Batch of 2 targets.
Target 1
Amino acid sequence: MQNLKRLDELIDHMHARTQTKEHAIELLEFAAQEVYDQVKIISFFESWMKAILLARGYWIHGFEGKRLNPLRNAIKKRPQKIADVLSQGITAEEVSEYTIGMSTLLDPAYLEVIGLPIELTNMAFIINDDRGKIHLKHDLIMLQGKDIVNDLRKLKNYATSLINKMHEAQQAAKAQPTARL
């Protein structure tokens, strides 16, 4: 995702049948980089989506032991408020160190709470499905061409806007005078 303009140019060469050996090698390097990019993109979105859930008061952890199977199953189906989970009398030992996964976060019930735009949701589904496949993605680039570049650009722009908003919120919070007791 570092150089989408260059990837766009390489795809133009491929479609215009002006691709050289050097272009082909560079395109393969982009394909190899895509596996790393997918991990970074999904890691960002997974962390961001969990942060949104926490900020809105929803539980993100799993559970240990059979006693909480009904609650575990309920969390797989839809987000649960932290207060509701804690009212079940769970102990610290019953809280898993693992959190819900990306597949759960991409469930429509979770997406409704998180509010991820639909066009990014579709791309997140694709990346999540593909990220486990450790192989070159040359075929994907060949088949989707400009579409993949445009989708990656949308994801990058959305992530950048989120980071900018977080930065602005931090700056605004720093500018607020602190109350003295």
Target 2
Amino acid sequence: MKPSLLIGLGLIVAACFGLSCNVSPDAASSTIEGAPTEADVEQFITKKEEVLATGTGSAHKSVKLTFESIRFGKSRKATERDRVVNGITGSTVYPARVKYISHRTWGNGEAEDKNIHYDYELYQDEYDEWNAYLVGPVN
């Protein structure tokens, strides 16, 4: 083979390898593309708390949340166990540790503040809405 042909083939292979490795400066941030924001987490938890607080059979009159911290863990691909055992329907799981205060007002006017520190595994469901598997309280 001619040296110019070998050089040309080498450049093509190098270019293809570079494209497949995604060596752009934004490569690290692309792994969290589509990840939930703090606002998404707050909105999801607020919606769930309001449904629980004002739903049928609830003695609460209202609930207001004050978020203290939201920390995100490393995202991962959902496993078969996630789907079968935990009911996760999304393809990616985003762990989040959330600490907030639930200010609850009862039907008789009494108020209660409950400190909540909980781990969630968030995912986008089949309707592209944020949902979560509630892992459990943080000690």
